[in-house]
Amino acid sequence: MPDVEYEVNNIVLTVSYRDVELDLKKIATNLVGARYDPEVFPGVAYRMSKPKASFLIFASGNANCVGANTVKGAEEAIKNLTEQLQDLGFNVSESETEVQNMVASIDFHRRFDLEEIARNFRHAEYNPEVFLGLVFRIADTNMAFLLFVQGDPVSVGG
């Protein structure tokens, strides 16, 4: 069988700055690419290009970081955000971060009989009338694989 290829597509982290109240209007006004419409959503949406990541920033000092494809890249983006918030006068220091979810795509270079897999594995769910992929849950974790006939599953979970 040819080598399996995989790629991490997205990592989601939560970010927590302690003991700080963030002025979202000030952040949205001063960070290029930031958007804030409190009537639509209670946080600032901010996208940075280097390193590539997006944030949802909340007044409580919490944020979500999405879009990086490595933990190191996400950590660099969080460090960059922290420095930008400090430059705006916010008293933020090291943040607490936690990986919440990772999404990876995999290519096995072969086709799969999804009905056969569903019959033989109790953690597999396959209903092609609802969803074309087989959902394979890993016992005692919050991880799952979405497996398709062509052999290109997607791994989700943290």
From TrEMBL:
| Keyword vocabulary terms for this entry | Coiled coil, DNA-binding, Repeat, Transcription
Where on the tree of life does the source sit, at the highest rank? Archaea
Looking at the keywords, is Transcription present?
Answer: yes
Q: What Gene3D superfamilies does UniProt report for this protein, alphabetically?
A: TATA-Binding Protein
**Which Pfam family name is an example for this entry?**
TBP
Q: Show the SUPFAM superfamilies listed in the entry.
A: TATA-box binding protein-like (SSF55945)
One of the GO biological process terms: DNA-templated transcription initiation
Q: Which GO terms describe its molecular function?
A: DNA binding
Coiled coil spans = 71-98
**Family, similarity comment:** Belongs to the TBP family.
Protein name per its UniProtKB record? TATA-box-binding protein
Species of origin reads candidate division MSBL1 archaeon SCGC-AAA382C18
